[in-house]
Amino acid sequence: SQELEQSPQSLIVQEGKNLTINCTSSKTLYGLYWYKQKYGEGLIFLMMLQKGGEEKSHEKITAKLDEKKQQSSLHITASQPSHAGIYLCGAVGAGGTSYGKLTFGQGTILTVHP
Amino acid sequence: GAVVSQHPSWVICKSGTSVKIECRSLDFQATTMFWYRQFPKQSLMLMATSNEGSKATYEQGVEKDKFLINHASLTLSTLTVTSAHPEDSSFYICSAKDRSNTGELFFGEGSRLTVL
User: Which residue among A35, A72, A95, B58 has its CA within the 20 to 30 Å range from the CA of A29?
Assistant: First the structure.
């Protein structure tokens, strides 16, 4: 089955700083999702990446998919306290018993100090 | 955008009782829905894939007789936690895939189950 590893597992930054979260897959990525969550609440969809080399941005968040490396990165510029939360990457399985299933990395807990 | 509704958002029950959680796609049809479980400070763990009109596919280690899944229509999947015990207390989230969409998944707001 496809496994996703996120790094770092937790991150504490000062407001205004830039940060990057990485997501590495054990298999080729055919669809990579980034979500934000506060525990006990639903997931907030951030971005979906499907093509190798694809890069998307939304406000101060940019995500890239490096298909060759089976990796995606999420970059936040000039972080704000509102960016705090759990960031999850999810990947859709491409074949076999994993086909169509969305599985998640272990999450990155982001804390932003004002 | 597409909306997935979960109900109830939170539920408290006594040990030994069964609890049903509903997941509805409000403005699209979903042939496939996924059920996840999340413990505090942990990520979402896929429990099962719910397929409309057929049996659910369970992940390894998930008891199908414990977590009954029914996907009777293109807009509704239910998860029933049977004979609930305190260790079943968790946050359960469903997601649905729009049958007319190429990839995006939509998540419910989650249901917090507390078993006393």
Answer: B58
